[in-house]
């Protein structure tokens, strides 16, 4: 398939190192099913990169990455000086091992605590007594409806939350989250955007003959419809 060939070219050209974006220089030790070429090209989930900037505005953050997959965010953010500690939750044991490998490869293993499944109980145990400002990145295929409840887990009222909302798997979850956090957070919806041919940085004689579809597919996230993000910032007086 042409798209697979383009993805292999990205892997070869980048030497398995993220080429640009907020995680430029991050090394990824093995291809994963989860948009590996898009990560190396520096455009994976680029819609939400601006939300990460707040982590650079003050020091000593505690970050939770729930649904950490291969560690793109966990290892990537752990490389930032402003992030003191990262708690990476990943259910799948094979992917969790890959996450640990990527943390070691990028020399941030001491900064990242790797956990198995995130439950309401262990999430609360991790952050209820936190003295650092907290930032939560959540991508759990609809389980956000269970985890993210500021009444049951009051510490969430003071957290910055970047949530991938899975309406396609859990109908109405976006509205429920908005209603739960409306009193404590400013909430902004971030919609997915199509990738563009000019975001592909690795053109050569051969790739120029490919249709845009094949190139864009290689650097896309493969995101189905019914998925978007909510970016929630605590209101003044909350954090």
Q: Mean pLDDT, rounded to whole units?
A: 90
Q: Give me the Rg, rounded.
A: 18 Å
Instruction: Choose one word for the global shape.
Output: globular
Give start-end ranges of low-pLDDT stretches: none
Structural class: alpha/beta
Per DSSP E runs of 2 or more residues, the count of β-strands stands at 7
Number of helices: 8
| Beginning-to-end CA distance, first to last residue | 49 Å
Name of the top-level CATH class: Alpha Beta
> Could you estimate the helical fraction of the residues in percent?
25-40%
Strand order of the largest sheet: 3-2-1-4-5-7-6
In words, what does this structure look like?
The protein has 239 residues and is of the alpha/beta class. It has a single domain, classed as Vaccinia Virus protein VP39 (Rossmann fold), CATH 3.40.50. The chain is 28% helix and 18% strand. It has helices at residues 2-14, 36-40, 72-78, 93-105, 120-127, 144-147, 173-181, 212-219; strands at residues 61-66, 83-89, 112-115, 134-138, 160-166, 185-190, 227-234. It has a seven-stranded mixed sheet with strand order 3-2-1-4-5-7-6, sandwiched between helices. α1 crosses α8. The longest helix is centred in the first third of the chain and has 13 residues, at 2-14. The radius of gyration is 18 Å and the shape is globular. The model has no long low-confidence stretch (mean pLDDT 90).
């Amino acid at each position: 398939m042409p798209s697979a060939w383009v993805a292999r070219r990205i892997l070869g050209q980048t030497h398995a190192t993220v080429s640009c974006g907020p995680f430029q220089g991050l090394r990824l030790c093995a291809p994963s099913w989860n948009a590996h070429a898009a990560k190396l090209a520096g455009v994976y989930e680029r819609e939400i990169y601006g939300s990460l900037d707040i982590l650079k505005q003050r020091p000593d953050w505690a970050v939770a990455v729930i649904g950490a997959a291969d560690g793109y965010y966990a290892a990537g953010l752990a490389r930032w000086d402003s992030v003191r500690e990262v708690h990476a939750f990943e259910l799948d044991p094979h992917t969790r091992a890959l996450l640990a490998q990527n943390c070691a490869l990028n020399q941030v293993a001491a900064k990242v605590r790797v956990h198995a499944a995130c439950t309401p109980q262990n999430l609360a145990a991790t952050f209820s007594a936190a003295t650092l400002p907290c930032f939560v990145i959540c991508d759990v295929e609809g389980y956000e409806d269970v985890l993210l409840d500021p009444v049951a887990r009051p510490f969430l009222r003071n957290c910055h939350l970047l949530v991938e909302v899975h309406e396609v798997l859990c109908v109405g979850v976006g509205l429920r989250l908005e209603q739960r956090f409306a009193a404590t957070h400013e909430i902004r919806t971030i919609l997915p955007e199509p990738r563009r041919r000019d975001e592909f940085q690795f053109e050569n004689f051969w790739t120029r003959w490919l249709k845009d579809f094949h190139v864009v597919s290689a650097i896309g996230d493969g995101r189905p419809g019914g998925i978007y993000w909510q970016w929630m910032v605590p209101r003044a007086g909350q954090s």
